Amino acid sequence: MSTTEPPSLKHLPIGLFASVMGLAGLALAWRRAESVAWLPSGSWWLPGALAAVAFVLIGGAAILRASRFPDAAIGDWRHPVKLNFFAAISIALILFGTLLARPLPALALPLWAIGAVAHLALTLVALRRWILAPSLPLAALNPAWFIPVVGNILVPLAGVEFGYLEPSWFFFSVGIFFWPILLALILYRLFFHEPLPQRLAPTIFILLAPPAVGFLAYLRLTDSFDAFARVLFYVMLLTLLLLATKLPHFARLPFFPSSWAYSFPLAAATVASFEFAQRLGSPLALALAGALAAAATLVIAALVVLTLRAAFSGALLAAEG
Question: For the stretch 248-268, what's the b/e string if a residue is b when 16 or more beta carbons lie within 10 angstroms of its beta carbon?
């Protein structure tokens, strides 16, 4: 007799909120592509609207799950890996605020503010958990740990626009301080211990996000294309080249909800490359930006199709095993 659990809302993966980050990031990338006339004006609203729909659907499902299966939701909150993906919710709000800062500032400001405050709270929860935990298994350490803490560097992207310069510097400082610390820990785990399990392997792409977003946030805060800005961009470029050498490995992986970890880092690298190309006046950087924009679009389109297929087949709500 089979003991396999049937698909159930109980097994809704909290990591699915990364899809909202990816779609919102793609909207930012498309809007940047519009600035060089590669896309029609207003095209970015399509992925932006899809991100909003995804947020509402996944958020509604998560609330329903928490009401029907509170033990499962609490289990995610207490899990050393799944806790990090709760921060994708606050980051989604920050990204919506960033997207809408100019066309709809009255809506964007509260979304950004709620997201920033919620993200700071999740940062404190994560740090407290890591410091006070009697013993965290090394296997729990993976690039998703960047999300709740290093994710703070996203706040200045809209914070400067809204006039909140000092809070933006605060959030940037938190994220940029913890980035090398967590990077060293994660590289230690990757270098000297067993590989990440297949389910978490896509999170390696998250390594691309901190230098890409850090580059954009630093430019927003200082408007200075200086040595530190270049260091951030070139660290991103090195990470991108390293990931490119592993593309055959990633292509062979089956689809998991964590596969959405490919999406936002690619979109962030696209926006950073467009910004770098504009500041430097480099055709080579502009070509890189175009290639990344195409790659991000194709990858995210594929992830949407695979996610919908998994949802209709029931695989999306299957027990992890």
Answer: eebeeeebbbbbbbbbbbbbb
Alpha-carbon distance of 320 to 98, in angstroms, equals 34
Helices (H), the chain: 18-34, 45-68, 70-78, 87-99, 105-132, 146-150, 156-159, 165-192, 209-222, 227-244, 247-252, 263-280, 283-313
pLDDT score at 4? 66
> What's the pLDDT tens digit per position in 86-109?
999 999 999 999 999 999 999 999
**Taking the model in full, what pTM does it have?**
0.95
The CATH number of the structural domain formed by 9-317 is 1.50.10.150
Check residue 2 and give its pLDDT. Answer: 40
Report CA torsion sign: 252, 256, 260, 265: negative
Give the integer Cα–Cα distance in Å for 51 and 148.
20
Q: What are phi and psi of 159, to 5 degrees?
A: -60, -40
What's CA 40's distance to the chain center, in Å?
A: 26
Tens digit of each residue's pLDDT (9 = 90 or more) over 239-273: 999 999 999 999 999 999 999 999 999 999 999 99
318 vs 255: CA distance, rounded Å: 13
Sequence spans of domains, the chain? 9-317
